[in-house]
TrEMBL record:
Keywords: Membrane, Transmembrane, Transmembrane helix. This is Uncharacterized protein. The chain crosses the membrane at residues 49-71, 83-109, 121-144, 151-172, 192-215. PROSITE patterns: PROKAR_LIPOPROTEIN. It comes from Bifidobacterium bohemicum DSM 22767.
């Protein structure tokens, strides 16, 4: 993990706490049904709270392949370390979001929601995982190509956080593609797998390959 000043660490810790508290407060808000809360979790809460938390943690822990570091470790080794940290962060954010949603729903809507909760939580976890992982991989690629972390994080958060609000006039048509891998198009597994998981796997292969190629060319890009 990279070293940061004490003030920066405190600021990041505060932002993480705010993200978690925002997730809790959003999930405690009562909507007409638990399914509406579920949709809000995917299209608004996750992009406003879980995604910022994910990108901040990714920024804190990722290794930048400087000349000094490259003299001691290969680019593939650094990339593998960053990828492991990325997966750990994504899994942690997914677990936090799913756990908060699972705990708060019975408190808001009563025990009646428990019957369909396991299936709902599993689909939610898959979609949040795909959200965090896809955006994080794009962030890593953009940073490796020369964009500074703060700029990359700010732009990505602006796009995905404000996207649903800005695109409301399009009745979900555009936001459906902006949030392609986690948009609530249906909760049946065949629908989720065919329309989101399979395209996500293809996207994952392409972006990881692009990340690895850009990482291996980092010294040339710097020059």
């Amino acid at each position: 993990m990279k070293r940061h000043s004490k003030s920066v660490r405190w600021m990041m810790a505060a932002m993480l706490v705010v993200s978690i508290l925002y997730t809790i407060s959003s999930c405690l808000q009562r909507w007409p049904s638990a399914m509406v809360s579920y949709n809000q979790m995917l299209t608004e809460t996750s992009t406003r709270a879980l995604l910022p938390m994910c990108l901040i943690l990714l920024f804190v822990g990722s290794c930048q392949p400087t000349a000094l570091l490259l003299a001691r470790r290969s680019t593939r080794s650094i990339f593998a370390t960053n990828l492991a940290w990325l997966v750990l962060v994504v899994a942690g954010c997914t677990l936090i979001g799913t756990a908060v949603f699972g705990v708060t729903m019975p408190l808001v809507y009563g025990p009646k929601v428990l019957q369909g909760m396991p299936h709902m939580l599993l689909v939610l976890a898959v979609r949040v995982f795909m959200m965090c992982l896809s955006v994080s991989l794009v962030a890593v690629l953009v940073v490796t190509l020369g964009v500074r972390w703060p700029v990359a994080v700010a732009v990505l958060l602006a796009v995905f956080t404000l996207g649903n609000w800005v695109l409301t006039a399009f009745a979900g048509t555009v936001s459906r593609y902006l949030y392609f891998f986690w948009y609530p198009i249906g909760d049946d597994w065949p629908v989720v797998v065919v329309n989101q998981v399979v395209p996500f796997v293809g996207f994952l292969i392409v972006v990881v390959a692009a990340d690895l190629f850009a990482f291996s060319r980092f010294d040339h890009l710097e020059g």
